[in-house]
Amino acid sequence: MFIEALPFLREIASTIRDVLGDNNPALIPTVMAAYAMTSILIGVTFLALGALGCVSLFSLGLSLTLPSDTEPLTLSSTPAVLFAASHIPLFLSSSLPALFLSFSLRSNFFRTITRGATQHALYVPTFILAIAIIFWSTEAIKGNVTAGGITKLAEQGWLFTIESQSGNNELQGYKWNYWHLFDFTKIEWWAMRGSAVDMVLLVAIGVLNLPIFVSALALSLGNSFFSMDRELLGHAASNLFAGAVGTVPNMIVFSNSLFFIRAGGSRKEAISVAILTLVIFFISSYLLPYIPTLLAGAFVLFISLELMIESLWDSTKTLQLGEWTIVMGTVVACTFLGFAPGVGVGFGVTLVMHFWWTSIDSRARSIVTGDQSASQNSDSRVHLLRLVHDNGSHDTDVEKNAEVQYKFRDVKLLPKIRVIKLAGYIFFATIPSLEKEVNMPCSGFILLDLTRVHRIETSATIFIKNKVQELAAKPQAVKVVMCGLVRDSGAHLDLKRGHINCTWDGDTNRLSDAEEEIMICFEGMREAIQWCEDNMNRRHGNVRAAQTTDQTIRSKIPFSENRSEC
User: Fold this and answer.
1) Counting C-beta atoms within 10 Å of the first and last residue's C-beta, which end of the chain has fewer, N or C?
2) Residue 560: alpha-carbon gap to chain centroid
3) What is the pLDDT of residues 321-374, one digit of tens each?
């Protein structure tokens, strides 16, 4: 289960509790039925759709250290609850470790004095476990490890509490068996109406998270070969199964998946993790009373801080001002208006901004030179060659035809260049058409013409970078070159934010291994195509032969005296 679901599940349960009351026997069966219904809805929706998500974790982290009878946190009640004299020790014990952990991960000072230990994969889990060790060591010194001391700590909010079942023989032995909580004769279906909004939001957030997290995971791992259809069907099956067995929704967890795969995890290790998780599930009721609330609070606060820093601070390095404003506006709206209205504001602003940005058609279109254009008529070939050789002179028809005969003398050795033209604002909706053109058969060079492009969205920039690496890794490597790009223009700055390193006018004259990380850019298309042709000739070792043939042709044709060499 992904952690973003916890605030929604909590809100669903709270809403139903407010309707039915704390001591109503229908409360737990109704809540369990609502959870199962949400899983089924997500599973059904996954069969059709996909697309966003993440919010509300900060308030959840703060409230984990509150006693169970405390009212839910709101903007008006937060100062009085968190800064009450009785709660300040709990608040500081959970928030300060989270702040320190987040700071230590980003501090060069701590990285230096620990010799890189703060960057180790086990640093965060070790730090979190150390909180529990320090807590129990302190309580042991104070003499609070007795039954009476543990009960007192739970009453004060330092430990989690479990509802006492000592007085109900019917429930004995069911600590791990949640199925006994389902009693369809007691379910009050009408009570779910109040939680319908949260259920729908949970479905929407769950469905929207999948394409984003799967794509981000593939990008982080450098793997573009994944099928979103398979991911949708797989998550649909898992959520339908979860609903059928009466449990909560489940979803890909980006951080867990990333760390697991980077650590070399495969199917065998995944099975081991599943078995260990099952064991913890059976014994969790025995462990939970001894887990400090400040451990859980610090962990969730740490995650929420990391997400907040990533979305509001780290994003300033990669997002355009308009994109970052949408993110900031959505966060502010969720904070002051509530999650549902805030998400609505975010979607509304996003639609308006993209309607404005995309008023110009930005779909990719391509033309091809080389052997794929050999079947075209000679006029179109001369037109394409003019892009290369037009230098202000007025060539005769004979001269143009001679150039065509030279250029198409041996199609096996000719440059194969696919020119993809883009226009307007390049954003996520441009990616499908761009990917379609890029994936068409091509051996040699792909030339992205950005002459009419004014800005490039971050997602499109990341896609271009990822696609360039994918094409370069093919057995028959395809080099991507850009033209129509002006230094320090908006489009150039967008590429820099996406960590695409540009070099102009073929500063690197030869294609080498080091150059695969560099994007060759030109301000004009003529120079770009000429550079591609020259490098293709170098690849085939035909530089001298091409020069000899060129001189032979030119010696037989009267050229203008003021013509400059190409």
Assistant:
1) C
2) 58
3) 777 888 888 888 877 776 667 767 877 887 777 676 655 544 545 554 444 433
Q: Smallest Cα–Cα separation from 406: which of 561, 533, 281?
A: 533
- Cα 176 to Cα 195, 248, 280: the distances in Å are 26, 15, 10
Are the C-beta atoms of 95 and 301 separated by less than 8 Å? yes
* Domains contained in the chain, CATH given: 5-312 (no CATH), 313-357 (no CATH), 365-555 (3.30.750.24)
Phi, psi (rounded to 5 degrees) for 524: -120, 150
pLDDT tens for 407-436 read 433 444 344 678 888 888 887 777 777 888
Residue with tokens 């068996």: 177
Q: Determine the Cα–Cα distance for residues 188 and 24; give it in Å rounded to an integer.
A: 10
pLDDT of 152 strictly over 80? yes
Q: Is the dihedral of CA 265, 130, 84, 68 positive or negative?
A: positive
Identify which of 223, 83, 254, 93 has the alpha carbon closest to the alpha carbon of residue 159: 93
Cβ atoms 446, 480 nearer than 8 A: yes
Q: Which two tokens mark 209?
A: 């998270």
Helices (H), ranges, 114-227: 123-142, 147-155, 196-220
Tens of pLDDT, residue by residue over 246-279, are 777 877 777 677 767 766 777 888 888 888 888 8
Q: Which residues have CB under 8 Å from 190's CB, separation 6+?
A: none
Cβ proximity of 323 and 385 under 8 Å: no
Which single residue is written with the structure tokens 């930005």? 362
